[in-house]
Amino acid sequence: MKITRRLRWLLAGGILLMTLLFLLFLFFATKNFLDLWDRLQLLPTWLFYTYSTLIVAVVLFSGWLIVKLVSGGRSTTAIKRPAPKPVIEASLTQEIAQIKAAGMDTAPLEVEIAELNERRTAGNAHIAFFGDISTGKSSIIKALLPEAGVEINLRGGSTREIREYTWQTLAGDHLLLTDLPGRNEAEGTLDAAARDEAIRAHIVVYVTDSDLSRTQFEDLQELAAFGKPLLIAINKRDQYTAEEQAQLAQRIRSRFDSAQRTGTNERSVRVEPPEVLFIQSGGTEEIVRVYPDGREETVQRPRKTDISALATHLQTEIDQRLESLTQQRDTSVLNLVQEKLDTTREDYRRTQAEKIVRSYTHKAILGALASVSPGTDLVIQGVIGTRMVQELCKLYDSPVSQLDIDQFLNFTQGKLGKSIPLLLAVAGNGLKAFPGVGTVAGGLVHAVAYGLIFDALGKSVAHTLEQRGALKAAPAAATFQEMLSGNLEERTKTFARLVIEQYRGK
Dihedral, CA atoms, 490, 491, 493, 496, nearest 10 degrees? Predict the structure, then answer.
């Protein structure tokens, strides 16, 4: 109790002292400010305003610095990414020819371009119906085109059916309507063939019978990223009152507005919020029929079909915007081809990079086995390491100088120093699984260690080139250190087996 009372008196005294000091400072500052103000009044007008402006500028600059320091340089608004360069068909065709000459498979890309040209020639208005199973897509299409012919296609190796309906309207418009498999028809993922077909369409009609789920919204965002005009048709209109329909439509549009503001659209394409329409696709419904004698019976009866809002909207779009919709369709398909081209090139480079790393790792192991005094100093073999880095940079079209390579190898040697004892110990343990190598284990241990080093070295270079587009010495060396210790036991077994096979095959 005495200690507590004493602390309280000390705190009270501290507060009193701080109050007196603050008042003293306030009086002193006020006095000096008033003296300064009086002196400024005596200055010439031009000098007074110049001095005042300087004071204000210093205060504002100081305040700006404080805000930047406190906020850590973070901006409260979303970071604006640079808009992607438009894909030009001529340059895209030239790029396809280049990667084909390099040995890559370009058949799917050429088919996509040829199909785009066919659709241009045909001049059909292509409308894709997308959405989950049992939401009424087929019923809507049949209601729109009751006499249309149907053709079932399998696209892109997909086992999912893509139904195509062709029709010529009284106005002379040629229509191609496609019924695409939805997410839960494609094992819980957005089917690639269905997505591509939606991208090829002029308009995508997304059919649902309720508010959009998270996965449905993600599907639409993916399509919107290609600049697709979207139309959301909410089926089973009779389940919603007019007020509920207005609220639901507003909620869906606001989600797209929010996504656009926060920049979740990866391609940063400006997309207008989709039109939301309410329809009734027909089908059947269960009712309970009550007879005069009190007996009840559950029976099925047809629902009334009303898709007039959708039909009117589509006809208006075709009549007024078909030319601009065609331009958007062409752009979307070219973006799709560019995406596939980039994926093809990335896959090819990964495969080739693995071959290069495997080849030079093998050479490093052979060099270690052939050494007169293997393992006297476990450093990276300069010539083999340099050639491997050069070949990987050539694969990724990244110019590199010998200075860059030397800098990277020096960085990796610095990272390697502390790992050598561990590598040797792990390599030695790995070789114990092979009997009869005890007398030459020293040389073999170093050969296994070289294998581990070159494997990590090559993979770190390939990873850096893929992620950054150029050989950055410091990040690549950091990745090398991570890969050197990653999955060490399994990698050691692989290289130990390879070393033993090479040694016994001499």
Answer: -170
